[in-house]
Amino acid sequence: MSIKPRFIISDLHLGEGQQSRLEDFDEQAAENFIQFFKNVSALGGARVIINGDFIDFPQISLGTISEPPQKFLGTTEAESTLRLQKAIAGHPEEFDALQDFLAVRGNELLLIPGNHDVDFAWNRVLKTLMHRIGATRRNFKFGMVYKEGGVLVTHGHQYSDDNQIDVPINFTFNRLNSCWGTYFVTNLFNTLEDRYPLLDNARPMWKVALAAILFDEIVVTGKFAAEFMLFLKNFRIPLKDYARSAVMGWKPKTRSLRQRDIDRIMDDIKIHALRDRLQELRGNPQFRREFDGVFREISETQWEQVFSRYGGADYEILDFVQNTESRPQSRGIFSDMDNYQQAATLIARHHSDIQAVVMGHTHHGVDRKTLLADGTKERFAYFNTGSWIRTYDIPWWNLPGLGTLFDPSEYIQNSGVVRCDGEDEELETAYFETWQEALEG
Fold it and tell me: Quick check: 184 pLDDT over 50?
């Protein structure tokens, strides 16, 4: 076989070190990482692909951070670079392991960014990483997609309604572009992890946010609750359409918000428990000011989308709550074939030489799932690399209480790997739940 064995991992989420309450990459994950790279090096020439979310930039604190001029904009190049420097300082042994791996002749590292480390699109950030691990143009590659020898690898966040980032950098404002998911992390999870360290390790994120609003144990701000309502109403409306009134920096028109407008918003909430809870919370004057204030700042276009014909995700949640026998629909908020697998069928259709599509992002490992390329009878294999942190994968049919989300026993330690041997017609690909199994191959 002419091509090197390829090991694909993803969703490590290194933060600023064990001293931080926001750190998800714990001591067990660190040990797995170090031993994995040590053992892969012993093979005498291998290629490792880190398929997104290597670094969890949004969960690395900066103390003070500049205020973006509009919503869904992230950090500057200087701020992203500082975050990476803090991650490097907090994980010296892990970065040493990468350096040792690349020091072995024939080894290669490929890095694909995810929604949590889109910061690598900044030139200075990428150079900082390469300098620390001794990367060169010969042994290190960076790109949004890897395609070779019958395998196509991409993180997959671009197929997620709440984490889609089409273009990493907004050069108009010289900042990163952002998404709903990053907003949830920054405005909810980062403030709660001091009390509930595992909360952001549950997936999908929108269910955690909904549970946070519904239950008394967590104090949710009016601003966050209003933003979450907008998210539900715009779930399958592309983010670029939601934000288009401010694409070139035009400030959204300020609405003269009338009481009947707010009443209309509240009456239109299809989930009774959520509507009752928000009505209760709006009895608090501060919550009410924050909640109503969000709707004063949205544009006329965004306002109309709140009541658009798309309906929004709350219709599907309502059906889920009221009818336990209902089955998920394709590309819905619940789905047997999720967005990523459906996207893979389109990829396979337009890349006829592909035998396998590998994604990450979901934190849910998937071994070979045979699918048909869209519009054809050609078969290909879909894989997902899972993650390397402790994760609770919330079942599609369940909206758990906070007691479940706070229970450490619900979270499973992962070190998922997709291994590829050979290429094209001789390609052999498999998912392994642990790195040890992947090395045994």
Answer: yes
